[in-house]
Specification:
The longest helix has 18 residues, at 197-214. Helices cover 13% and strands 26% of the residues. The chain is globular and about 50 Å long. It has an eleven-stranded mixed beta sheet, sandwiched between helices. The protein has a domain at 92-238: 3 Solenoid (Pectate Lyase C-like), CATH 2.160.20.60. The protein contains two helices and eleven strands, in the order βαβββββββββαβ. The protein has 243 residues and is of the alpha/beta class.
Length: 243
């Protein structure tokens, strides 16, 4: 089913999407999307939304198993508090990608803005993953508590994959950065390490899925090009808490 989103208010557009899926449609294509917010909010397993255009803030918020694909860029808050499913962006995205994300995957071909992965967390079988094909700005992985983030910097030869304050307040999870990362770019709460064989076996599974999505070759991504970031403590600010 196709819906022409040109000129439609975001509430009406979202009502049409939910109505179509509620009536038995399994896939909906939205054409001429221009900034409409909250597309795909709360959608569960078995649903697919294809977006041609630029969706607005909070694309896929609270999504719970659905697949969302954007043939273009996206604005802020992609995958806000996402539980499960997959969001694929064939372009760039704005700030706070994966805010409080709890599960599922977000694959981005291009760059992201500030505070990607802030407050990401994992629990039991819920394990969130964000892969960024380009670069990320400041505060990547701020207060990160679980899951995996990967920044590939594939279109930024010679540039650092990240900005400043990477992993500030981080107390769980892992971040893999491809390219040159200087100590002054990192928050004081994270430590760096080389990627060992076990790390690479885990990381390459995710990268294989990413490369298949975007028609890339895993052979172009070498283990030695990555730096692994993990938290130095599971309670970095414990000294300022009452308990």
């Amino acid at each position: 089913m196709r819906i022409n989103a040109d000129g439609i208010h975001y509430r009406e557009l979202n009502e049409q999407v939910h109505a179509a899926l509620g009536n038995g449609e399994k896939a909906v294509t939205l054409d001429n999307v221009r900034g409409q917010r909250y597309i795909g909010t709360g959608l569960g397993n078995g649903f697919k939304v294809i977006i041609n255009g630029v969706p607005g803030n909070d694309l896929g918020a609270f999504v719970n198993g659905a697949e969302i694909r954007v043939n273009g860029n996206a604005q802020d808050g992609v995958g806000n508090t996402m539980n499960a499913g997959r969001i694929t962006i064939h372009g760039d995205a704005g700030d706070v990608v994966g805010y409080s994300m709890r599960g599922g995957r977000i694959f981005l071909r291009g760059n992201v803005g500030y505070r990607a992965g802030i407050h990401m967390k994992a629990y039991q079988d819920f394990y969130p993953v964000i892969v960024i094909g380009g670069t990320a700005k400041d505060y990547l992985g701020e207060y990160m508590a679980g899951g995996m983030m990967v920044v590939l910097a594939m279109n930024s030869a010679g540039l650092s994959p990240v900005g400043r304050y990477v992993g500030t307040g981080m107390h769980g999870g892992v971040i893999y950065l491809r390219g040159i990362v200087e100590p002054h770019q990192l928050g004081s709460e994270v430590g760096t390490d080389a990627v060992n064989e076990a790390n690479w076996a885990d990381l390459s599974k995710t990268l294989t899925a990413y490369c298949e999505e975007f028609g890339l070759s895993l052979d172009d991504l070498r283990r030695d090009d990555f730096t692994k970031l993990t938290a130095k403590s599971s309670r970095p600010y414990g000294r300022i808490y009452a308990y």
